Amino acid sequence: MTSPEPAPPGPAEVVVHVPTVPDERTWAQARCPCGWAGPRRRAVASAHRDAERHAAEPGA
Fold first, then answer.
1. 37 located within any domain
2. Residue-wise pLDDT tens digits, 14-54
3. pTM, 2 dp
4. How distant, in Å, are the alpha carbons of 7, 26, 29 from that of 2?
5. What's the domain count of the chain?
6. Where are the beta strands (DSSP E) in the chain?
7. Which of 17, 20, 37, 38 would disulfide-bridge 30, Cβ 3.0–4.6 Å?
8. Residue 47 counted as domain residue
9. How far apart are CA 6 and CA 19, in angstroms?
10. How many CB atoms lie within 10 A of CB 57?
């Protein structure tokens, strides 16, 4: 059995920032696959704005 080869040098894995907000409740929290989470207990519209701001961040 051979050992796995190390990954070739190059750019780090790209993280796609697509925050989601559950719409089925009155209160919501935006979350992103990168681990980011917006403020808790926000109105759904505010949580959507939080998600849009996170997706537009320069580092995102």
1. yes
2. 566 778 887 777 788 999 988 999 998 889 899 999 999 99
3. 0.62
4. 15, 54, 45
5. 1
6. 27-28, 42-43
7. 38
8. yes
9. 31
10. 9
Residue 19 tokens, joined:
């925050």
* Token code pair at residue 20: 């989601």
Q: Residue 6 is encoded by which pair of tokens? A: 């190390």
Classify burial at 36, counting beta carbons within 10 Å of its beta carbon; exposed 0-12, middle 13-18, buried 19 or more: middle
**Full domain range(s) for residue 32:** 27-56
Chain position carrying tokens 């961040």: 57
Closest of 35, 23, 34, 31 to residue 51, by C-alpha? 31
What's the CA gap between 25 and 45, in Å, rounded? 11
Q: Are 37 and 29 in contact (CB under 8 A)?
A: yes
Quick check: 55 and 19 in contact, CB under 8 A? yes
Q: Is residue 5 part of a domain?
A: no
